[in-house]
Amino acid sequence: MEENAVQTVKTAKRSFVGLVTSEKMDKTIVVTISSKKMDRLYKKYVTRSKKYMAHDENNDAHVGDTVRIVECRPLSKNKCWRLAEVIERAK
């Protein structure tokens, strides 16, 4: 009977801190995450960046804000992140 029991495994949600680069869509923001990696050959730091689309229910974030996004279920074709908090507002 234990073989048929379904185990529920909770995984830790990934989260990133990044900069809002676009807010032109309704309830959606584009967040750019930047990280520095050392080049294996030349031993110099290279900045890598990736863009994520995140759900912003209240249209709270604006361009230039620093925000935290967390992983969630797929909300659309490109959107599987949601806005957790606005860390710092743009001036």
UniProtKB/TrEMBL annotation:
One of the primary rRNA binding proteins, it binds specifically to the 5'-end of 16S ribosomal RNA. GO terms for cellular component: cytosolic small ribosomal subunit. CDD domains: Ribosomal_uS17 (cd00364). Belongs to the universal ribosomal protein uS17 family. One of its GO terms (molecular function) is structural constituent of ribosome. It comes from Treponema bryantii. SUPFAM superfamilies: Nucleic acid-binding proteins. It comes from the Bacteria. Part of the 30S ribosomal subunit. This is Small ribosomal subunit protein uS17. InterPro entries: NA-bd_OB-fold, Ribosomal_uS17, Ribosomal_uS17_bact/chlr, Ribosomal_uS17_CS. Transmembrane segments: none annotated. Keywords: Ribonucleoprotein, Ribosomal protein, RNA-binding, rRNA-binding. GO terms for biological process: translation.
